[in-house]
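I trust your eye. Have a critical look at both lines of this record:
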Amino acid sequence: MFDLTGRNAVVTGSTKGIGKAIAVALAQHGARVVISSRDEKRVNSTVDELRSNDLEVIGIPCNVSRKNELQSLVSETNERWGNIDILVGNAAINPHYGSALEVPDEIFSKILASNIQSNLWLAQLVAPGMRNKQDGAIIFVSSIGGFFGSEVIGTYCISKAGDFQLARNLAVELGPDNIRVNCIAPGLVKTDFARKLWEDPESSNARIQRTPLGRLGEPDDVAGIAVYLASDAGRWTTGQTIVVDGGVSISK
């Protein structure tokens, strides 16, 4: 049920953290995976690393905030491997740490463009190929921040809540073509992206104490859900947001 042999996957933001863990897991289950981020050197080194472990990957650098680069990402994948079967929109930014009342207009727009608009663009680009096959899986990596208000990452939380609704809307539109669209909402995972949150001992210890499983997340903790959603095991799951947070969101 989890075999992805013969399927082509694109994972944005996949040179480190959660994105890399998902890319590795998909490849380990048989998929051919496109590694992508805006850092070309990191893309190349990640491809070399994964190929050394006998995983079938290629690298295509892409800044997800630029529509022309997303178009190139999809078209190059199609040219080299054929239609994309699995899309994982993982790349995201959070350049503002502070009150949403004080976020500059250009930063607010930049966050929404990278965290929501890029996922819509990607879905629009891969949908025709998936419709031709009458099969496909689109996965957005969101955050439990989309469920809560925040005094310091509020703009980021707004964007992540938007991904929940984007997945629901696209699931309705693409369901008749057997294309599933879902979100993964991780809790606090020890990645470079979330370093400000987990490196502070006071805040990380407080989070751990509230977490039933008693620890922060690791990138590999999220990867299995992506494999489920991308594979036949998840063939009747769509429009959902699956929380992976050690239980913190259900704890007082």
In short: The chain has a mean pLDDT of 95.
